[in-house]
Amino acid sequence: MVLNKFGVVLALCLLAVACGEKVESDSGAAKGIESDVVASGLMNPSCVTFSPYGELTICDSGNGRVVILRDGKLIDYITGFDTEYWKVDKKTGTKRFKLGPLSALWLGKTLVVSDGGKKDGQETLLFFSAPGLAATGVASNTMVPEGVAPEKGEGNLTGMSATADQKTIYLCGQGQDDHSWLLQCDVATKKLSVFASADTQGIGTNSPMQVLDWDDTSVLALYSGKGGVDDGLIVKWDKNTAKPLGQWTLPGLTDPMGMARKAGSDQLVVVDNNWSLTEVKTGRLAKVNLVDGGKATVKIIDVSLHGPVSCVFGPQGDLFVAQLGKKFDSDKGEVIRIKGL
Questions:
Q1: How many angstroms separate the CA atoms of 49 and 68, rounded?
Q2: Which residues are CB-neighbours of 278 under 8 A, at least 6 positions away?
Q3: Element housing 9 (H / E)
Q4: Is 168 helix (H, G, I), strand (E, B) or coil?
Q5: Which residue among 25, 59, 99, 114 is the one 20 to 30 A from 292 at the CA level?
Q6: Looking at residue 252, which CATH number applies to its domain?
Q7: Mean pLDDT lowest for which of 36-45, 174-183, 215-224?
Q8: Residue 78 half-sphere exposure, CB side, CA atoms within 13 Å?
Q9: Contacts of 280 (CB under 8 A, 6+ apart)
Q10: Beta strand pairing status for 208-213 and 268-272?
Q11: Cα angle 48, 307, 11; round to 5
């Protein structure tokens, strides 16, 4: 059966009713929402953030570099990161999803980058005080949780967020497919350690993708869950006890990979990659409100996206979304600016 756009929205709404949660759709044209491409020619871009000077900073992951957008042009900031293919087909040997730096975060004039192109258990956070080569970064320790074999230590470090005082960084790790952790890094000592684990708290959804510093006592973590399955989750974690304070499902979103908080509010936006191992599928953008009882309100925004993976609000309030583009492992990766949210 082929569904037109109305049919897709109707299907999402019926799913929400079955789950006892609320999904709405929102016509971008009707609400004055506009979008345009601000950066292109990227390979598997994985993160967008802003420098203290308001310059868009992008992890051009597949090309092993971090770039900034200056006067409409992409400028190399850190280059020479290792890269690896995230998946290799054991039967055919086909390599898919070339990845390098996965997440970037500015702490004043210091840029912190997760060195995602290394093997699991060998990845670190790298701290840069100036542009240059990846080899010049000051590294944190690697992260191998207690009881885990070294070759299965933490990898695919992503989704970084710093506390308001910039003393602690929270981030996600996905070293093992059957277990994952939220990590923390003490900025002064650059010591990386385990913060929390969904598995040990009876939370079945895994694959953490993004952390947001929420308030003085808690952080939010976005979990993507199994590929192609509507099991995404947001969990609020207590910073002191590493225990969950609340959790919300995300009806209608199959593979949420990035979220951002609008300045001065509790309004969240989430990008849904709609994951596939063999192709880039049409993604989704949603406004999400975390209401009492774990029943998140999800409003789908009518914006055309192709494999979105990360998002951030810019200094002027526009949303910037990194997406794989119409083909991964190519030069089709883009960053989209969305106005009017």
A1: 9
A2: 96
A3: helix 5-19
A4: strand
A5: 25
A6: 2.120.10.30
A7: 174-183
A8: 30
A9: 306, 307, 324, 325, 326, 327, 328, 332
A10: unpaired
A11: 125
Model pTM above 0.70: yes
The residue type at 148 = V
Cα of first residue to Cα of last residue in the chain, in angstroms, is 33
Long-range pairs of 160-166 with CB within 8 A, sequence gap ≥ 24: 160/103, 160/104, 160/105, 160/112, 160/114, 160/125, 160/211, 161/105, 161/210, 161/211, 161/212, 161/213, 161/219, 162/105, 162/107, 162/187, 162/213, 163/213, 164/213, 164/216, 166/107, 166/108
Is pLDDT at 193 greater than 90 in this prediction? yes
Using alpha carbons, select from 211, 303, 296 the residue that is nearest to residue 259: 211
Q: Could you tell me the CA-to-CA distances from 250 to 214, 221, 257, 263 in Å, in that order?
A: 18, 13, 12, 22
| Domain that residue 272 falls in | 5-339
Dihedrals phi, psi of 321, to nearest 5 degrees: -125, 125
Label residue 11 by pLDDT band (50, 70, 90): very low
Please state which of the ranges 27-36, 39-48, 279-288 shows the lowest mean pLDDT: 27-36
Q: How far is CA 151 from CA 143, 158, 192, 339, in A?
A: 11, 19, 17, 44
Count of Cβ atoms closer than 10 Å to residue 264 Cβ: 7
What's the sign of the alpha-carbon dihedral 187, 189, 192, 198? negative
Q: How many domains does the chain have?
A: 1
